[in-house]
Amino acid sequence: MAFHPLFANLKQDLRGALLEFIGTFFFLTLAFGGVQATTSAGGVNQPAPNALNVFIASVCFGFSLLVSAWLFYRVTGGLFNPNVSLALFLTGCIGAVRFVLYCIAQLAGAIAAAAVILALSPGPCSYNTKLQTGINPAQGVFIEMFVTSYLVLAVLMLAAEKHQVTPFAPVGIGLTLFVCELWSIYYTGGAVNTARAFGPAVVTGFPFGTQWVYWVGPCLGSFLGSVFYAILKHWNYTVINPDQAVTDARKSPQDPVVNIRQRAASILHRPHDDHESTLTNGEKPRNAVDDNTGMVQNGAPANRSGVPRDDIV
């Protein structure tokens, strides 16, 4: 029986979804485990956020994604994030079936990772996401929207776009998550990923009433990042700064000293060029003979040969 064209690659889509589940589990066990270990090493169950905790948690998520994405990059693309999957679907990089299967696998992988770390680590779950005191849900939505859009744009520009440094895209993507976490983790818990917020919430019984923030904000970020990417593609951004991704040394800037000398020479010759340009505007050069008066333009009378006469006082 023939399948609908939408399910033409169903077998590969299912395999990809299974591997995304494993990859998401791999990524989040590293990230959740690092945060939980940091909390336990602090000697208290849930220490108040401070600069050191923010930095360490940001490192845990950023570098866990860098390593995990690099390992799975040639397998599934190393998405591990429903919001990245949504952006790839919106920009036509993946189909509808793969998008749905990937999202299910990523959410399931996050739940499994959160459960395993909670079971293996002492103390309560310290990697849940919640809004910091003083941050209202609207602020949380916009913070999550912006940081997710930055991550989405990094994936689209470094991984989806093919260029010389595409094989190193996981490095840039991981570092992007790291700096996004530096901003957002104190205020919202730094989800930047609906699955990352959903997994711990499931295993802890949704202790906070703001789970919707981590669905609305990152989804808006997916749309924002995708729209900006679409604008860049529509403008054919590669012609704005051409040859930026080439490795041909001949396209490098020339010797600055030579460049300065050439500019200086052009400036020194400019008066001569300006004089010649006046001739093109219909003006006669100095000492030219006026056809009507027989006088040169500097006021001296001329003979028939047109040469100024010096014997006339």
From TrEMBL:
Please list the residue ranges that the record marks as compositionally biased, kind Basic and acidic residues: 271-289
Keyword Membrane present in the record's keywords: the answer is yes
Could you tell me the keywords of this UniProt record? Membrane, Transmembrane, Transmembrane helix, Transport
Source organism of the structure: Thelephora terrestris
Q: What is the lineage of its organism?
A: Eukaryota, Fungi, Dikarya, Basidiomycota, Agaricomycotina
Q: How does it sit in the membrane?
A: Multi-pass membrane protein
Protein name, as recorded:
Aquaporin 1
> Which cellular component appears as one GO term in the record?
plasma membrane
Transport as a keyword? yes
